[in-house]
Design a protein that fits this description.
Rossmann fold; 10 helices; 214 residues; five-stranded parallel sheet
């Protein structure tokens, strides 16, 4: 991996800066009475991903409306309340108890910063700062911490990526996108000619990334 060309890096959060294996089951077990609501969220998220809603309010209005559509016993207001007051805080709480950043993740970020690279965290979910804190990754290692929803559309929404690039003044030719999913992270990067590195591409992918920068 040649790293000299890069002056900025975009990191996905879930599955990338920490291994999220087992998180879905823990979310279900921690909130069994609402597991049916979680199922509606997963279906609704899949249905609206990639679409441009211009801002976070538009994204969440669409998400909660779609949750109510796929599960007719669920109201928009109940979906909103569950997501904001239960689901997202629960994710952060579970991360703090059961999960940790990938080995040498903080050292990797520090090495990138020492090279003068601009580092942006780009999560597909909200509560991104709370989750970073739960993983004990210092926020000041990032030049920006944002969610796809705040950019106006869930990954792989191209308008969201364009806004991200513009907001942080990033050049596609010198930016590396590091994620864990081809359908969301990869498809966010490739249409804009941004190099994509998948930390789950092979069992040694994370080690290869560390070797390139450390």
């Amino acid at each position: 991996m040649s790293i000299d060309k890069y002056s900025s890096v975009i990191f996905d959060l879930d599955g990338t800066l920490y291994d999220n294996k087992g998180l879905p089951l823990k979310l279900v077990l921690a909130d069994i009475p609402n597991m049916w609501v979680l199922g509606a969220e997963r279906k609704a998220r899949k249905n609206i991903k990639g679409r441009d809603y211009r801002d976070a309010e538009g994204v969440y209005d669409a998400l909660f409306a779609e949750m109510a559509r796929v599960k007719r016993s669920l109201t928009v207001e109940k979906a909103r309340q569950w997501y904001q007051q239960k689901y997202m805080p629960l994710q952060a709480a579970l991360l703090r108890i059961y999960f940790a950043a990938r080995p040498l993740a903080v050292e990797l970020l520090q090495a990138m910063r020492a090279r003068g690279m601009k580092i942006i965290l780009y999560s597909d979910y909200g509560h991104e700062t709370e989750k970073i804190d739960a993983l004990r990754i210092p926020q000041d290692l990032f030049d920006g911490i944002v969610s796809a929803a705040k950019m106006g559309g869930l990954k792989p929404c191209q308008q969201s990526m364009q806004r991200l690039m513009q907001q942080f003044n990033l050049d596609a030719a010198t930016t590396l996108y590091i994620g864990d999913r081809e359908d969301t992270d990869g498809e966010s990067a490739r249409p804009m000619n941004i190099d994509f590195y998948n930390v789950k591409a092979n069992p040694n992918a994370w080690d290869e990334l560390l070797k390139a920068f450390l």
